[in-house]
Amino acid sequence: MELPMRSTGDVFAPAGRVAELIGRIAARPGVGDIPVACFYAFDVRTRMLPFLFYDSRMLPGGLTAILSAFHSAGFNARGVFQMWSPNVRPSKCRLDGKPIQIMTTTAMQINSAPSFELIQDAWSMGEDRPLILAGGPKAIYEPDHYFGLGPKGDIHADAVATGEELVLLELLDRITANRGVNETVLQAFRRCRDEALLDDIPGLVFMSKERDAGGRPVLHNTGPQRLVQDLDELPHPQIGLTLVEPKHRAETLSPMPISPNKLHNVVRAISIVTTRGCRFGCQFCGITAYSQRTWRHKSPERLADEFKVLREKFNVPYFFGADDNFFNDRQTTESILTAIAATTYNIGGKTKNARQAIRFCTEATATDVYNNRDLIPLARDAGTWAIWFGIEDLSLKLVNKGQTPTKTIEMFRLLNEN
Ligand code: SF4
Question: Looking at the domain assignment, is residue 9 inside a domain?
């Protein structure tokens, strides 16, 4: 899997950019009146072991991240997880009695079919349709698939984000800054696009005004995203968790999202962003290029706070770290684990430590866990409960990440002991 990267020295956005954009957008008149529906597409045909049953009890982190960004920027947003509310249609969505003005759809490759159907449904609204934005893994690796939809190939997303929350916020900032009085978000987007006001926002793909020699529309790709270096800049995930549509079979949105004190009835595990990236550069893996050879993380203090707030507020004990390689950097990993292990939790009026209060599951390379195996007891004290490994080849002949049978056996022995 290959993606282009930004040139050295231009990979990261300026520090503080997320807060700057959120503050600017939220201060603009009328933003709070813009209804937004964020869909996480799910194709029921893809349900399979080993995630069957558990898959319906974990909210995708991408959905809560997008919701947190929209809400922090002042929008009236609701999130729809299609596994829970499969029949909700963009054309039927109303928030506070108003049709949505922005629809986002996030999908993995295997869930792209319902993502495309959502877009087609939104287009059935004609000129009253919302601005349609697509994101997530499918959009990152194959953004062009979000164009040329429908029987005639004339249905498409308005813009596809090939990056993270920052790309969305940059786009929203540009649209809201240029939106005229009484102009819809879609109208403002079209004007920005046609006046080339979106061309300097990296991480977007949209249909330009240009036509090729055969008269066909041309896609404009603004290049690889800039990354938020300090993940503490991202909005707190607790925000998005309060904006999720309840489980139901209706086509419309409920009057209210799931109440925070009822979330644990449907959510068994919360997805949490701790680190992003991996120091290994395996040829078959898209993570290295997507992360532009960087490894980023939240601070130990921020993560300790997130675990505490999420555990105490939502009463959900399991956490899934959306990590690529949690043990990538020893010093950082040790600092994070130390901070989490030192945190106490108030669970039902009783004080508990991390080992008692949380069950943190994450992903890491076998080599880095083995090399830092002295941290395994600390990881357990920090509530670490499971680590997923990608051990593709013990012979080292096809995939060499430094793993060997001896190291792997020893590592699993230590994990089992703890
Ligand atoms: S070790 Fe795993 S996450 Fe890291 S680059 Fe290789 S396959 Fe990707």
Answer: no
The amino acid at 316: V
Please tell me the residue having the least CA distance from ligand 1 atom 6: 282
CB-ligand 1 contact for 369 (6 Å cutoff): no
**What CATH number corresponds to the domain at position 407?**
3.30.750.210
Kindly state whether residue 257 falls inside one of the protein's structural domains: no
Between the alpha carbon of residue 33 and those of residues 30, 176, 178, 185, 360, the distances in Å are: 5, 12, 16, 11, 38
Reported ipTM exceeds the 0.95 cut = yes
**Cis ω for the linkage preceding 50 (within 30 of 0):** yes
**What pLDDT is stored for residue 173 in this prediction?**
98
Count of the separate structural domains present in the chain: 2
Together in a domain, 169 and 297: no
Ligand 1 centroid, distance to 285 Cα (angstroms): 6
Ligand 1 pocket test, pick from 3, 279, 280, 393 with the greatest ligand atom count within 8 Å of Cβ, gives 280
Domain range enclosing 116: 17-221
Tell me the C-alpha distance between 186 and 202, whole Å.
Answer: 20
- Is it the case that residue 71 has pLDDT exceeding 80? yes
Domain end call among 157, 188, 221 = 221
pLDDT tens-digit readout, 203-231: 999 998 888 999 888 999 999 999 999 99
Report the atom number in ligand 1 closest to the C-alpha of 390: 2
Please give the residue that has the higher pLDDT: either 239 or 400: 239
